Amino acid sequence: MADSRQDGRRPTRTPDHGARPRHPRVRCTSSPAHTSLKLQRDKLKQYQRRLQAVLDREREIAKAALAKGDKRRALLALRQRKYQEQTLLRTDQQLATLQELVASIEFTQIQAAVVHGLEQGSAALKALQAEVSLERVERIMDESREGVAYQREIDEALASHMSPEEEEEVLRELDALQREQMPAIPDVPADEPVHLPDAPTKIPAEAEGEMDGEGVGEGEGRVAQKAAEKPERVMLAA
């Protein structure tokens, strides 16, 4: 039997029928679908930052409206802010799903998981794009006829999308803003004793002089009265 090493041929191994062939788990990091997931994730982060700026501006508008005594516009700004906060919360959850897909997706999962992730990402992006306009926020303070009509339309739309719990949260936030704008009243300690001036124990010199003057005047008046009565008695006796 010829040695296979001598004739240049590689020795053959007898296959082990008991072992199962292993297929490496290929992580798909360069496919178009995987790239789309990353792009959607980055866009979501960008729109979230822009929406946060809108939320901050709406709070400023609510405070400005309260300063003018316009409670209706302040409430509208806070209602819109609450609705957008819920939108931001939902996109946070969808963003977490996309990040998990980007980090762990494998080639065998790409068909179903990526399609679902892309659908979620597209819906989240559309929701954010509709809410990140600062121009829409500024129209809350528009006092023109068109501005008032727009505000009424937004108010009616928000009323149909907000739960009673969210409306209660809006009212609490409005009360908090009103308390912030109230002038600060200094606190007076309830237990601190009140010191009153002592009652005078002596009569002031001016008061004594007045009393002395009144006494002299009364004495002189009685003497003059007696002097006048004396001649009258003499005349009656005569």
From TrEMBL:
The UniProt similarity line reads:
Belongs to the SNF7 family.
**Polar residues compositional bias: what residue ranges?**
28-38
Q: Listed GO cellular component terms? A: ESCRT III complex; multivesicular body
Q: Where found? A: Endosome membrane
Any idea what this protein is called?
Snf7-domain-containing protein
- Identify the InterPro entries for this entry: Snf7_fam (IPR005024)
Q: Spell out the Acidic residues composition-biased ranges.
A: 207-217
Which intervals carry biased composition (Basic and acidic residues)? 1-19, 219-238
Superkingdom classification of source: Eukaryota
GO annotation terms (biological process): late endosome to vacuole transport via multivesicular body sorting pathway; protein transport; vesicle budding from membrane
| Signal peptide feature range | none
UniProt keywords (A-Z) are: Endosome, Membrane, Protein transport, Transport
Could you tell me which PANTHER family the record lists for this protein?
Answer: CHARGED MULTIVESICULAR BODY PROTEIN (PTHR22761), CHARGED MULTIVESICULAR BODY PROTEIN 6 (PTHR22761:SF5)
Transport among the record's keywords? Answer: yes
Region Disordered: which residues? 1-40, 185-238
Q: Taxonomic classification, please?
A: Eukaryota, Fungi, Dikarya, Basidiomycota, Agaricomycotina
Asked whether the UniProt record includes Repeat among its keywords, one would answer: no
